[in-house]
Amino acid sequence: MKQDMIVILDLGSTRNPELAREIRDLGVYSEIYPHDITVDELKALENVKGVVLNGGENRVVDGAPVDIDADLYGCGLPMMAVDHPGAKCELVYDALPEKEALKSFVFDTCKAEANWNMKNFIEDQVELIRRQVGEKKVLLALSGGVDSSVVAALLLKAIGSQLVCVHVNHGLMRKGESESVIEVFKNQLNANLVYVDATDRFLGKLEGVADPEQKRKIIGAEFIRVFEEEARKLDGIEFLGQGTIYPDIIESGTKTAKMVKSHHNVGGLPEDLQFELVEPLKQLFKDEVRACGIELGLPGGMVYRQPFPGPGLGVRCLGAITRDRLEAVREADAILREEFERAGLDKKVWQYFTVVPDFKSVGVKNNARCFEYPVIIRAVNTVDAMTATIEQLDWPVLLKITDRIMNEVANVNRVCYDLSPKPTATIEWE
């Protein structure tokens, strides 16, 4: 790696991502590692200039406070401790230091250079990908979302025709999504694209499954099985490309930090995985992924498109998935996206979508009692997907969306607007 790095050791702080972001904003790369990293493991990392011990509310595990290996204090690297009593460091803070103090530690104490940028990152990743893959082929899960699109561009730059893109329609896509993927990547970008319609297969596996963690794991595992089957039809496939990004890894939990939720591409991978993973974006936050896409020359409309979770509508059709609710959330989502675009909100709001829960409420349609589902609208703004605020929509826009959903979507008699920020809520409902 060409970039200098500051290592953050996770001693239970919920603000590790915030600290990593602040250091990266200074132009210096930063990564989060478990508190029990060994001296040899730390020394094996490239270009480490300093270490931050970041303690917090999750520091107690199994009734006892966790600490680093005592030998790390003698590793020869500058160290700073935050809210970590008893740390044997020259710099100890009770809370995250102000920007100037952090800047002084990074540049004056650690002597790090501000060489963290997308150009250097891409050069590093191209070299690492070529070294990892060699002459073999990579099978890429191409959903058409921001993450997988940027991975595709990066892999094409690194290995060209050795990349085979596979788009799996699991029946949990948004309206028109698969058709759009085929048009852009196969017809416009001339990518080597394989299309697989596995709708019945996925919905069959998910039938009766209500637990969101189990749904994610089923979807993740079934994706792998589909890719394995496609790989057997090809020669030389030994690698699986994924659009895993840093929040996926952080939110799936570490030894010290509590898990928020597992991600299908992190917690859902089977133990008998037949591929070696290629995940060149796994240390980037969402806004950095977009910056990477722009640096790679992808069109802005693709880079800044609406985020969409890997499990798709499977985590927006709450509880056990049924085809009527799945269709309701798909049609309601299409209406929401149409009206946001008309109102110019598609360029203002980071993520917006609909959710259909697995319960009904009483209503009135055609002068008769009905018992149907509610649709919940969610619209949030965020920089890095770790925190999020609610978009305050104009009343006429909400009324128009509500009117269309109730008149055009079957089996729906209510529309609600979710006002919950992250935290305490997450961006998705499951």
Automatic annotation (TrEMBL):
Domain GMPS ATP-PPase intervals: 116-305
One Pfam assignment: GMP_synt_C
Highest rank taxon of the organism: Bacteria
Keywords carried by this UniProt record: ATP-binding, Glutamine amidotransferase, GMP biosynthesis, Ligase, Nucleotide-binding, Purine biosynthesis
Leading EC class: ligase
Coiled coil: none
Residues the record lists as binding ATP: 143-149
EC id: 6.3.5.2
InterPro entries: Class_I_gatase-like (IPR029062), GMP_synth_C (IPR001674), GMPS_ATP_PPase_dom (IPR025777), NAD/GMP_synthase (IPR022310), Rossmann-like_a/b/a_fold (IPR014729)
Keyword check for Glycoprotein: no
GO MF entry, a single one: GMP synthase activity
UniProt keyword Nucleotide-binding, yes or no: yes
Involved pathway(s): Purine metabolism; GMP biosynthesis; GMP from XMP (L-Gln route): step 1/1
Cellular component annotations (GO), alphabetically ordered: cytosol
SUPFAM superfamilies listed in its UniProt record: Adenine nucleotide alpha hydrolases-like, Class I glutamine amidotransferase-like
NCBIfam families on file: guaA_Cterm, PRK00074.1
Protein purpose: Catalyzes the synthesis of GMP from XMP.
Protein name (record): GMP synthase (glutamine-hydrolyzing)
